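Worked example 3 (structure in, sequence out).
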């Protein structure tokens, strides 16, 4: 039976506190949500019918980290189906485990991992979302607010007290003086900070004078920026890649590790290269100083056989923006070609100790609009 999203009333408001990403996707009338629903329904119906319920249960869970990981697997399956007529889901390995996908015609197994944030960060996000939801109930005729919220501790602040103190603070501000200063090009607002002395939470609020035409009762909280102290980093990426290799060390088939780093906003290409090929070190004992790679605790150290055959790095893969994602094949040192046919973007470590890259020769995103391979 084909998968279809329920035909229900949809609304245009933003994601609500406590609402899962799947619940928001089903409810939202935003164009991006409609496009995502169309893609997911099409790709789920291309998924093998016997395997679909397991993936669907993970997509629809209330745990956003699980949903996003399942979405990454679905996107990869859709991509592979446009490159090969047969994609085997969860093929067994000699150790009794499973990889995620296999292309029998090409002889490649794929193991997919989405670098996720910790449960600690997820809990902090939820506490921040609850506080922001309360602050959005504030209204002001003369100012709107930009808010930074950080709640790493388990105990959030008293919303009633914070809202009362924000109103008292706004009452001390003079709109006419602030507006005159802002019109003259001045950066008027000075942030007001509420913070727990133990570091459990911190709320920074700046008040901006409305223009004369915009004065009148309305939401006080406009721009909201959530501070995030728990983003996954390069150490987490390196550890997870090595864990996946250890998990499949008995696999006698060529293995491609697929890692989605979309949640790791601050991981850059050079850091990914360090996780794969070793840390770049500047040797100042030589004249002139030279750079070399310390090939320890990385995916392709000198002493390890060439496994995996590639790491497919996925970046910027967000619900509603799949066609803007970036797929980069990182290959073993000295191997400038990709194991899967196609003019992909490829990166590899050269004999000069530097990473070289060939850009993609075609728009990978266009594959998603194509029909599956026959």
């Amino acid at each position: 039976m084909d998968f279809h999203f329920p035909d229900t009333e949809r609304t245009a408001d933003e994601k609500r506190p406590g609402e899962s990403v799947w619940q928001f996707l089903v409810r939202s009338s935003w164009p991006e949500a409609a496009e995502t629903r169309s893609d997911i329904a099409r790709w789920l119906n291309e998924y093998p019918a016997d395997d679909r319920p397991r993936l669907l249960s993970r997509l629809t869970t209330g745990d956003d980290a699980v949903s996003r990981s399942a979405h990454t697997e679905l996107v990869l399956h859709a991509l592979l189906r446009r490159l090969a007529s047969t994609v085997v889901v969860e093929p067994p390995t000699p150790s009794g485990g499973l990889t995620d996908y296999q292309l029998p015609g090409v002889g490649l197994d794929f193991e997919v991992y989405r670098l996720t944030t910790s449960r600690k960060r997820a809990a902090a996000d939820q506490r921040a979302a609850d506080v922001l939801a309360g602050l959005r109930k504030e209204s002001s005729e003369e100012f709107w607010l930009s808010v930074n919220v950080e709640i790493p501790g388990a105990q959030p602040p008293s919303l009633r007290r914070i809202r009362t103190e924000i109103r008292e603070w706004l009452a001390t501000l003079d709109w006419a003086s602030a507006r005159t200063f802002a019109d003259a090009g001045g950066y008027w607002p000075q942030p007001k900070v509420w913070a727990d002395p133990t570091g459990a939470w911190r709320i920074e609020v700046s008040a901006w004078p409305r223009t004369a035409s915009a004065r009148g009762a309305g939401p006080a909280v406009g721009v909201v920026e959530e501070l995030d102290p728990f983003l996954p980093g390069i150490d987490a990426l390196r550890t997870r890649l090595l864990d996946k290799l250890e998990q499949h060390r008995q696999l006698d088939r060529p293995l491609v590790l697929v890692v989605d780093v979309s949640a790791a906003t601050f991981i850059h290409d050079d850091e990914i290269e360090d996780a794969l090929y070793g840390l770049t070190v500047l040797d100042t004992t030589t004249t002139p100083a030279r750079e070399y790679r310390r090939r320890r605790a990385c995916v392709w150290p000198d002493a390890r056989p060439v496994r995996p055959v590639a790491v497919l790095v996925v970046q910027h893969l967000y619900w509603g923006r799949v066609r803007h994602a970036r797929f980069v094949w990182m290959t073993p040192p000295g191997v400038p070609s990709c194991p899967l046919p196609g003019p992909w973007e490829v990166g590899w470590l050269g004999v000069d100790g530097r990473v070289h890259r060939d850009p993609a020769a075609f728009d990978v995103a266009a594959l998603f609009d194509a029909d599956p391979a026959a």
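Notes: The two ends are 21 Å apart (CA to CA). The longest strand covers residues 143-150.
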